[in-house]
Design brief:
By secondary structure, this protein is an alpha+beta fold. 44% of the residues lie in helices and 15% in strands. It has two domains: 126 residues, endopeptidase fold (from Nostoc punctiforme), CATH 3.90.1720.10; 39 residues. A six-stranded antiparallel β-sheet has the order 5-1-2-3-4-6. Strand 1 and strand 2 form a beta hairpin.
């Protein structure tokens, strides 16, 4: 067992608060959004309709369902579907600003993008989660049709409706998020140990960065309201 898991847990919590919502990193010196790779960057010949695609990031994983013909359905926080019905604007690649505002407003959309726009330069794993569900894997066509039926505006919740919930519902029939489970376990671990000054400091910093909230030396007064707000 770990001698003192709280500092590590608090660090993970801070990282999740900042990065779990799919914010794309910008290269050093960049003043704007990073353009996605050019079409043809990925070899899609090994993908089949209904495949579950994963793009591992440094601290999280983004998920989508392959629909064929270089198209991927995936759920992303986005503010635009709640303020406009202009499909041309909504279909443009989601910027970090749109994404962050979508998280704040708890709005999202299940959208269809090219593989390049979906992966944004990251490596792609195919059906990597199948091993966790064994006999629950639905037929590929059923998975693809489920994804297509859900395309459009939807609510967003880090705990109840994120990109992982979307793909596990489509491919396995039940919305599950292992990333969320790990996140909640981290929160419980920190709350159980009120003695950790480091945990309080890190969560306070996360609150300032994410919400502009003044720090507090008492952990629950900072984090629990934010946690419940995100849970929506």
């Amino acid at each position: 067992t770990m001698k003192n898991p709280v500092p590590q847990a608090a660090s993970l919590l801070l990282e999740k608060l900042m990065l779990l919502v799919h914010i794309r990193p910008l290269p050093a010196g960049s003043g704007g959004e990073t353009p996605p790779p050019a079409p043809g960057y990925y070899d899609t010949s090994c993908f089949k309709r209904g495949d579950l695609l994963e793009v591992p990031r440094t601290l999280f994983i983004h998920f989508g369902i392959y629909l064929g013909e270089n198209r991927v359905a995936h759920l992303m926080p986005d503010i635009l579907p709640s303020i406009t019905s202009d499909r041309r604007q909504i279909q443009q690649v989601v910027t970090n600003k749109r994404l962050i505002l979508g998280v704040i407003a708890r709005t999202a959309s299940v959208r269809v993008d090219t593989v390049e726009d979906f992966a944004y330069g990251g490596s792609i794993l195919v059906n990597h989660m199948d091993r966790l569900f064994e006999d629950q894997v639905l037929a590929s066509e059923e998975a693809a049709r489920r994804a297509e039926k859900l395309v459009g505006a939807t609510a967003y919740s880090l705990l109840w409706n994120n990109c992982e919930h979307f793909v596990t519902y489509c491919r396995y029939g039940a919305p599950v998020s292992f990333q969320t489970d790990k996140f909640c376990e981290t929160v419980k671990m920190i709350i159980r140990d009120q003695r950790s000054v480091l945990a309080s400091v890190l969560v306070g910093l996360a609150s300032i960065v994410c919400l502009g909230v003044a720090p507090s030396t008492t952990l629950p007064t900072i984090f629990i309201p934010f946690f419940l707000w995100m849970a929506g």
